[in-house]
Design brief:
Length: about 625
């Protein structure tokens, strides 16, 4: 005999004959002949009785559906015939002896089917795992591709063999198990035993879903628990969640929906209630985690941690069509509400963090000038942050849609494409990025004044703006700000570089005559050489510490300076040979020496803060005294 615990799970209480009219409400085809009814009852006693666990040791240890699938199909057909017979008996005489016999047989059959249903669910956990089930093309195909056990819709053994030729063994077993479950469920539901069937299904399948959620590293946590966690621990949880959420949606919940829709295809209300009860708790835990993180993140997380929140927002919003489709039932609306609540909380936290990030730019109080007029650490931090943000431009567009963008009037004229007009306003996301960069540029204007040499201030601005332009041009920020923005700011870089050249090297150029090709009196030429030596040495000494980190800009500045200085000096040098011939101490530099010294500039000298390799190269070049060769 089965254990008591098993009986309480499998077996339902006997229904009285007077309750049969409720269990069997109506049927389209009644059996009117007493002989036919007797024949059906006799056949049922033989077929069903064979599998009565209370009367047969064989039935207790053998599975009907595993032992002989054809016999299992006959068993289902027999129960359906018995059900039709009992409908007819209820209509004729609710107290007939035949009805009592039929009810007793039906109870034996339902006990058997409950046991088979449980065994199929339990023994096929591996084949009915969500991944195997979700591999089916769609819920619609799942509801129609594998038929039930009715006369015209029987999945025959030949059909299974043919299907097995085109699908893997695992999928084959999965299809068979799903077909068996559906056949049993439809038989039990139509016989008035839906409650018993559903109870078994919910217990087993919910345990699988809950186990799946746990294995994905997602567990139920309160806000107070999360609030006590340090960021490293929280980030580990976030990474687990990010890895698991796609699997949970695409495989776990989708597979469970497919299976539920298939098994209970005959009843919309049952498949809805089953799916809701099985998945609701796990789904709310899954989609509730980002809301907890967002609440805490808004208070504790620094702006740099915004990317984890954006990752979570992307994970939910990117799968929203699937989430909405899977949890489309009214009874699972709480799951959608939870997912939406998390998106709202994440949006609020992201906006708060972006506001805080802008504030950190304003608050930057570093007073030390960058050695050599190089790229400021603030520039690097902000551009790195902004370019990473641009990778999330699609979700940021949704998030920032709820926050008014900076007024376009607050931005410099022609900051964007000149073709822009009120009829084609810039997107809010573009204005937000433009504003962040403008805040940085304004801050850099102030930091440029920290340099004592005005020429170095302009080189600082050129370096930093070039770094910003490079970052914009090679990232998604370019698509937000546009080509016109890049072109206009490249022009500003050239303007800053020209101002640097003018202030840093005009004294050298001015030491030479306006017409360097004209021969001069010897004494006047000598004085010009002395002035050039002094001005060049002074300019070289000041500019030798300068840094230009962008190679293209560095070469452009060198070529421009060389064109002005070396070109004019070469012409003057050649035109006034008489003045310096035999005067080795008068002419310290041949034209090629000047060119060589200029070519070594803008790598920075030792201690300037540039990289060690550049510093060592520059140090080697300038450690020798300046002299002619």
């Amino acid at each position: 005999m089965p254990r008591k615990g098993m009986r309480s799970l499998f077996f339902s209480p006997k229904a009285s004959a007077s309750s049969l009219s409720q269990n069997y409400p109506s049927t389209p085809a009644r059996i009117s002949s007493d002989a036919s009814m007797e024949r059906i009852l006799t056949v049922s006693e033989s077929v069903i009785g064979k599998w009565n666990s209370d009367a047969s040791a064989y039935a207790r240890v053998t599975s009907l559906f595993y032992e002989n699938r054809r016999e299992a199909r006959d068993f289902i057909r027999c129960v359906n015939e018995l059900q039709r017979c009992m409908h007819s008996l209820v209509a004729e005489d609710a107290n007939s002896e035949k009805l009592v016999r039929g009810q007793n047989l039906m109870e034996v059959a339902m006990k058997r089917l409950q046991k088979e249903f449980y065994q199929i669910l339990s023994m096929n956990r591996a084949h009915l795992d969500p991944e195997s089930v979700s591999a089916r093309s769609s819920r619609a195909s799942a509801r129609s591709s594998v038929s039930d056990y009715e006369d015209d819709d029987v999945l025959a053994e030949d059909d299974i063999r043919i299907a097995g030729e085109s699908i893997s063994e695992v999928e084959d077993v999965s299809n068979v198990a799903m077909a068996d479950l559906r056949a049993i469920a439809e038989c039990m539901i139509s016989s008035g035993y839906a409650k018993e069937c559903v109870k078994i299904y919910k217990i087993i399948r919910k345990s699988i879903v809950d186990e799946g959620i746990y294995k994905l590293g997602v567990e139920k946590m309160s806000s107070s628990h999360i609030q006590k966690m340090d960021w490293n621990s929280m980030e580990l949880r976030i990474n687990n969640w990010l890895s698991g959420v796609k699997i949970a949606v695409k495989t776990l919940f989708n597979g469970e929906r497919i299976l539920c829709d298939h098994v209970f295809a005959s009843s919309d209300s049952i498949r809805e209630s089953c799916f809701a009860e099985i998945t609701r708790e796990g789904a709310q835990i899954l989609f509730g985690f980002p809301e907890h993180v967002a609440k805490i993140g808004k208070k504790k997380a620094s702006p740099e941690k915004v990317f984890r929140l954006l990752d979570m927002y992307t994970a939910i919003s990117g799968q929203w069509p699937d989430i909405e489709s899977i949890f489309s039932f009214e009874s699972t609306s709480a799951v959608l509400s939870q997912a939406i609540a998390s998106l709202i909380r994440l949006s609020e936290s992201v906006r708060a963090m972006l506001t805080e990030f802008e504030a950190t730019i304003h608050k930057d109080s570093s007073k030390s000038p960058v050695p050599g007029g190089g790229v400021h650490p603030l520039t690097m931090r902000v551009t790195d942050y902004v370019t990473l943000l641009a990778d999330y431009s699609n979700v940021l567009a949704d998030i920032l849609a709820g926050q008014p963008p900076p007024s376009k009037s607050s931005l410099p004229e022609s900051y964007f494409d000149t073709s822009d007009s009120d009829d084609f306003p810039e997107p809010a996301i573009s204005l937000r990025f433009a504003w962040l960069i403008l805040v940085l540029l304004c801050k850099l204007d102030g930091k440029a004044k920290q340099h004592k040499e005005v020429s170095l201030s302009y080189l600082f601005l050129a370096n930093n703006l070039q770094h910003i332009v490079n970052k914009v041009r090679t990232s998604n920020v370019k698509y937000l700000l546009g080509d016109e923005w890049v072109a206009s700011h490249e022009a500003k870089v050239k303007q800053f570089a020209a101002n640097y050249e003018r202030l840093g090297w005009d004294l050298v150029v001015g030491s030479l005559p306006e017409d360097p090709t004209a021969a001069m009196p010897v004494e006047e030429a000598k004085e010009r050489f002395r002035r050039f030596n002094a001005s060049f040495e002074q300019a070289h000494r000041k500019q030798s510490v300068c840094v230009v980190q962008d190679s293209k800009l560095r070469d452009e500045i060198k070529v421009s300076i060389a064109r002005k200085v070396v070109g004019a000096y070469t012409e003057f040098y050649d035109a006034n040979r008489a003045a310096w011939r035999g005067e080795r101490n008068l002419v310290r530099y041949a034209p090629e020496d000047v060119g060589n010294y200029l070519s070594d500039l803008f790598f920075g000298s030792v201690g300037s803060g540039s990289s060690s390799s550049l510093s060592s190269t520059s140090s080697t070049s300038h450690s020798r005294p300046l002299r002619s060769r």
